Amino acid sequence: MSITRNEIKILKTLKTTKGRKKENRYIAEGVRLLEESLRFDHLPKMILIDQSQIDDRMENLLSTMQKKSIRIEKISSKDIEAVADTKSPQGIIGIFEKRELKTSELSLRKPRKILWCENISDPGNVGTLLRSALAFDFEMIFVSGSTADIFSPKVVRSAMGAIFKLKIVKDTESEIFKLIKTQNYSLLAADVLGKPIRVTGRKYSTKRIVLAIGSEAIGLTDIIKQKADEKIRIEHEKEIESLNASVAGSILMNEFYKMEKGPK
User: Fold this and answer.
1) CA distance 176 to 181
2) What angle, rounded to 10 degrees, do the helices at 56-67 and 31-39 form?
3) Which of 31, 138, 210, 252 could form a disulfide with 133 if both were Cys (CB 3.0 to 4.6 A apart)?
4) What is the structure's pLDDT at 115?
5) pLDDT grade, residue 6 (50/70/90)?
């Protein structure tokens, strides 16, 4: 059965937060992202393609997706442009089901390292943090406050496939605090007035940790800093007041990764 005009109309709404929430779906554009979804075994429910843009690489991808019984629909260039978020679409869009958990839905197996994004409004920064989290073995992401929608096209693009592997947990601060306490995690808050990570980080290198990163403008809220087991910071030259959220978070995650792995 071919895709209907009504389906196309609904898929156009996935560019908006309201549409993604209502349909519980999101879009990922381009061959590379869909190849990553294959690699992490997080398959789309449907793929839209502009036949005029199919090349050998896309043909190979589509062949693999067909073998996995993924629905593939050929639509016009005009419709691809309408569904896509980018100005110059690559001719292929995956439609994915949102996988977003509450703390109460988590399984007994909890990861050792979790990243908490609080009030990080810039989609590029959020996407970069997701990518760094996957690179440095932070398996789960807590999302709270006004953090950019994890499933927005800009976050999905900048995360470059990390969203297909990471567990995303969106909940209130109180529920996240409850999980941290009951599961014996240490809460570490990134703060410019904290202790240097090289001084205090090593004592947490084998413990279960939640690393909290706050907004670009004002950092973490007071409640997180008050409840933190430790406030930590990155040392840098005084000419710069602070680093942006994605840079700071990535450096901190990398520091914990190096401490955990030890010298090579």
Assistant:
1) 9
2) 40
3) 138
4) 98
5) very high
Q: pLDDT by residue (tens digit) across 51-64? A: 999 999 999 999 99
Please name every residue paired with 96 in a beta bridge, in sequence order, or none if there are none: 26
Sign of CA dihedral 92, 97, 102, 107: negative
Instruction: Return d(Cα 71, Cα 142) in angstroms, integer.
Output: 32
**Residues 99/156, Cβ–Cβ less than 8 Å:** no
Asked which of 98, 117, 137 is the last residue of a domain, the reply is 98
Distant-in-sequence, close-in-space partners of 251: CB < 8 Å, separation ≥ 6: 234, 243
8 Å CB contact between 110 and 142: no
Average pLDDT of the chain is: 94
Mean pLDDT along residues 132-157: 97
Query: At 49, which CATH number?
Result: 3.30.1330.30
Q: Which residue has the tokens 């950092």?
A: 219
| Residue 150 near residue 126, CB atoms below 8 Å | yes
Burial of 10 from C-beta contacts in 10 A (0-12 / 13-18 / 19+): middle
My answer on whether 83 and 137 are in the same domain is no
